Structure formats: structure tokens, C-alpha cells
Amino acid sequence: MNIPELGVGIIYFSGFEQTIAANPDLIQVIEIEPQTFWYRLNNGLAAYAYDEASVNYLQSLQKPVLFHGVGYPVAGSIAPDNIHLDCLHQMMDRLHPVTMSEHLSFNTLALNGTNYNTNFLLPPLQTEAGITTAVNGIKNYKQHFDIPFLFETGVNYLAPQPFELPDGYFVNEIAGQANCNILLDVHNILANEKNGRQKVKDYVRQLSHERVTQIHLAGGFYFNGYYLDAHSGPSSDEVLELFEAIVVQLPNLKVITFEMLPEYISLVPARDITLQLEKMNAIWDKRGSKNRTHKAAQQPVIDTELPAVKEWENTLGLLAIKRPVTTGSPLAAALQADKGLTVIQDLIEKFKGSLLVSALKLSCRYLMLSIGMDAFNALLRDFWQTSVTKLFASDNGIDFADYLLTQETLMGNTVLKELIVYEKASLQSFTENKTIVVNMSYNPLTMISHLIERKIPVLMEEQDYEIEITPDQGISDQIKTVFHS
Q1: Do residues 12 and 58 lie in contact, with contact meaning Cβ atoms separated by under 8 Å?
Q2: Which InterPro entries match (predicted)?
């Protein structure tokens, strides 16, 4: 299927409206991660619903839209559930995306007979078996759409293993066998090089340039000696120079988009984002200008024992979420010795903690103020070791509330207990679309006002309060899916 030439775009999150309004001519296309506008509903009618206000806003822009999926990567052996497809198609009917893309990663493993979501995009096994797994995953997923499908090249903080195929060759083989296009994330592959994997020039040389129809750009920073694909701000000069050197080689490039996470938008001067977009537009005009006949890499010879796909996924997945793995496994030993694993573990813990703080803002703030950050983080680690991670912040928040209510050492504190009950009821009221009544001993407005000032609620008069909680759109940002792209 043909893709029209779209130009320069930005990935939209709530809060980017002013940026888009300030750069109407520099932004020709809008890319969205549709699942970041979804809610988890438990009303027996639909598993997911999308934010109507955001869709209405996107329609009002009258710009082409791209869908970039998060949460349902295509390179794992466990297929994504089909429950989400109904909501995805509903959004497609409203926004008519030009393309659909997903990540060449996996995020699910089998744990005690249950599929466990790691809440993080992990690198697939780079062997011939890994290619076959990814190709099957892509073919199965893209059959649900009648628009062009792309997969995004991923970031990989792990050191290359002797049994792995080269990064670029692996990606190119998958694109060819699955007959789809490539979304080349320049910042991802530069991060990979900086962290010890294949050099970008070799990676790009191993690709069929005709299949690269989209590019992502972003910014990052160093953390514990590793360069992170953090989507934290404008691209560095190094990234932009590399981007230009690649763009001029691509004869079929249709769109380039800039990625930045919403938590950074208020920290970056508006002029810096405009400069990023101006530079991208100038480089866009050079696309394919130095294209020449190019032959992708030939199959390398790997002469070493290969792990199976399931072994790779379960071993890496369990280590990433700090669960026990089979002792004596050569693969487990190799991954445990890899310093990049620690980076992945730290990022997962930080991300999963943000899920809970997002869903239970008041209770988590009270805990942090009353017991301290070390004890709070210990609570989080214990919770994650005994729970199954969910995709949605609301589900994780309700599970965490239930966990906290079983902690006898905490439940002697009436204020904390009632905060937890109140916030759990607020989440359930929204996701189940019903009114819930809770009884409290203290005025919740007083409790909230103290916590907003980062103070432990004190000197409150004890009374009997009956609080009627109705579905509140105001908490919607707390309970949307929270993915990392």
C-alpha cells in the first residue's frame, strides 16, 4: 500500500496543544500513541474507552494522523490480546490514520501459568528463530488493519551476545519476510551504539533503504553510565547530523516525527522546540538526495549454541522484573553479568512506581511523608513481588490499595486507611461508572489541602462524614494507560 508524502510531525500528548498552535506551518502531521488516551472500564460492556475530548481536538486540527501503538509489541511469542482492537478501530473510524506502527519488542512472559506484563519494552531474541517469531507476530497483527503497517526499531541496553545476529540484519530480515515497512528510530539506534551495540553506519548499511518510510527523532541523557532513550527534549547536534546523513540516503521516506514525553514539555523552552522543528523541515527537504543503489547485508554465520525464544523471553523477563530464574542457566548467567540489565531493572521500577503514584496520589504522598522514601520504596518492591502487573494505572492502583489495606503496621493510622479507601472508591467509581458511598472520620477536603502542601494532615476534628463519590472525569489523567514508547 502506498503512503503519501506527509512531511514533519510531532507525537501528541495532552498538554502539547500550545506547541502545536505555535508551529502550524512546521507541523504537517500528528502522530499519536492511541493507548495513552484509553481508560480501563469494568462495566461489563467494554474493556476500553477512549478520551472523547482528545479525539475531538485531533479532528479539529485537520492534519493527517498516524497511529503508533504502545503496549502491544509484535516481536514476542505471546500474541497481544484482541480485546483492545475494538477500541483501536473505534479511534481509527474517527481519526482515519494513514499508517499503523508498533514496536519490535516483547513485554509479556508466562509466569506460573499466567501472562505477566513487564510494563516495559524488552528486546527480542536476535536469532533466526527470533526472526520467525517476529514475522509471525507482525503478520498476525497487521491483518487487523487495512492501512500500511510499520514496526519501530527498538532501544537495547544489553550487550550483544555471541549467538545474536547483527542488529541491522535482524531488522531487515523481519521487514522483508513480513513484507512491511520500517520506522527507523534514529535516537534508539544511536543509544544502542553509545551503549556498546552495533555502530549506526553499519546498522543503516544493513537495511533495505526502500523499506524505511518513517523516522523518529528524540533527545536523551546519561544515567548510571548508560545513554537513555528518554524522549526528554530536543535532539542534540550529534543526533541531527546523524539524522541528515541517513535521510539523504532514503528514497522512500514519507514522514519524520519528533518525540518528547509530556512530563518534559514544561521544562523545555518553546523556542527550542520550534528550532527542532525548523531543523527537521530543512533536512526533510533533502530526503533521498544522495540515494544510490544499495545492497542490504548478507546472512552472517553464527557458530554457537542458541537459546530458544521462550527461554530468552522468560529469562530476560523474569530478571527484568527481579523474579527468580532457573539456577545454572548459561543464558541467565550471561544476562545477570550484563550491566545493562541493572539499567532495565531501574527503569522498570521507576516506571511501575509512577503507575501507582499516578493512581493513588494522596495515599502515596501520605506514605512518602510519613514513613520516608526508603520505606515507601520497600513497600513498592514487596507489592510488585506479590502481584501481577496490569497495563492500566487504575487496575494497578486498586491492587495496590488492596495490598496496603492488608498491612497491619500501617492500618493503625486512621487517616491513611481512610485516604486509601477514598481513593480506591474514586478509581472504582470512574472505571465502573457508578456512585460509591464511603464513610470517613475526617473531612477529606482538609486532608487533601494539607497533602497538596506536602504536609501530613494534623489537628483535624474527628466527625462522621458520608462521602458520595460519583464518576469524575477530573481524575481521568490518573488512570489512563501509562506506557513507555
Answers
A1: yes
A2: MbnB/TglH/ChrH (IPR007801)
